[in-house]
Amino acid sequence: METRKCIETRRSVRKYTDQDVTPEILEQVVAAAAWAPSWKNTQVVRYYAVLNKETKDRIAETGVLGFTWNTKIIQGAPVLVVMTMKTGRSGFEKDGSSSTSKGTHWQSFDAGIAAQTFCLAAHEMGLGTVILGVIDENVIKECLNLPDDEEIAALIPVGYPAEEPKPPRRKPVEELLVMC
Fold it and tell me: Which residues is 79 bridged to in the sheet?
């Protein structure tokens, strides 16, 4: 798929078919997403693919701060990817000093690039995704026994789309671009 077409046709998918997403397909998506740029090539993002229904349901029921819309999306997805960031690397020098005025926010920038790259790679393979951010990080970290040096960036339900959302309205370039 051509890059522009992939960007323009990717949608946030919230309803999925029952078709399983194989580990091989997930590996291909992550292999593509691994090419996302990061601060000094630190590659701080990690992907935890939750396939176990009980674990996925536990996260859906207790890890989304009571936001039932996200509960339904997660429970309807064959896979839930918990995307994490290794802390203290992106935006920092080897001695631990900050390289940017953004401090710890730079890791979120890198995670955002990686999340979009992941979602575009999944879309190219016929998968649907949506990026969720209403989460209870402590609950999810406990559910998955995540390392202390990782923070959760987002949850990304993944599956074959059961819907084809219409494209949302986009602002005109004249509103988005300022020539200086």
Answer: 158
